[in-house]
Amino acid sequence: MQRPKVKRFATLAAAFVLALTTLPVLAQEGGEEEAPEPNWKNEVGLSYVGTSGNTDTSSFGLDYKGERKPTPWGLNLIAMFTRAENDGDVTAEQYLVGVRGLRQLNDRWSLFAGLSWARDPFSGFDNRYIAEAGAEFLAVKTDKHTLSFDAGLTWTSEDQITLREVLPPADPPVYEEDIHAVDWFGGVAGLKWDWAFSKSASLSQRLLYYPNFDDTADWRIASDTAVTASLTRMLALQFSYLVRYRNQPIDDLEKTDTTTKVSVVLNF
């Protein structure tokens, strides 16, 4: 069950993202000439699949990415919501809100600091807060390819969900959720690659590795691959494939989770 503090956090995060995306749009409307390369880039993706009749299933996804070009201060925003139901039963529920601030040092190097919150009860955690700080290096920047690497230190606080059998035992067994907080010090290492392989299509890859310095067996990897095809200047179709791997899953759950989405994307 989602607790009140999570609802407040999600509401404030949504309002924060909305304000940051609305302000640059309003600012651009005030001038007659459009800048050739705007400082702000925003992307909103919407996906939905539903069936009825012999089966009653539905899935809904909403994604947001915002980026302010460092001049020399920059900002990256991300928000994600995914929910799936099968015959009225929730089978997937994922939330993610994150912000990362950047300070550009030169054409290649930048410093970053960020904060994120995630919730995925089907992966065994009710809340996960990650604070991060480190450096980012731009290795390649051409008309078709952009490749950057980032690495830093993290502090993670996670409310882990485990199931325990109610006493006295019943037939069939009855379980209830037990939530306990776990904190640890770790790191983050990642890469980001963008490839514009045609005038209207591109591929992007974001790979992240999270080591746990307190428990070295509890490391995680996240890979997000997306192919985007532009329909108009503002609309595009996007296919994305997200893989999340945890070497030491919570409560003996599966190590690997995948999410596949086909979305309509609005760029502004």
Q: How would you briefly describe this protein structure?
A:
The chain is mostly beta strands.
Fold and architecture overview:
The protein is mainly beta. The protein has a single domain (4-267), classed as monomeric porin ompg (Porin). Helices cover 10% and strands 63% of the residues. It is built from 1 helix and 12 strands. It has a 12-stranded antiparallel beta barrel. The model is unreliable at 1-32 (pLDDT under 50).
Main traits of this protein?
twelve-stranded antiparallel beta barrel, 268 residues, 12 strands, globular, disordered N terminus, 1 helix, Porin, mainly beta
Strand order of the largest sheet: 1-2-3-4-5-6-7-8-9-10-11-12
CATH topology: Porin
Global geometry: globular
The CATH homologous superfamily is named monomeric porin ompg
The top-level CATH class is: Mainly Beta
Radius of gyration: 20 Å
Structural class: mainly beta
Q: What is the count of β-strands? A: 12
Assigned CATH architecture: Beta Barrel
Q: Note the gap between the termini.
A: 36 Å
Strand residue percentage: over 45%
Number of domains: 1
Helices and strands, in N-to-C order? HEEEEEEEEEEEE
Query: What composes the largest sheet?
Result: 12 strands, antiparallel, barrel
Average pLDDT reading = 86
| Helical stretch tally | 1
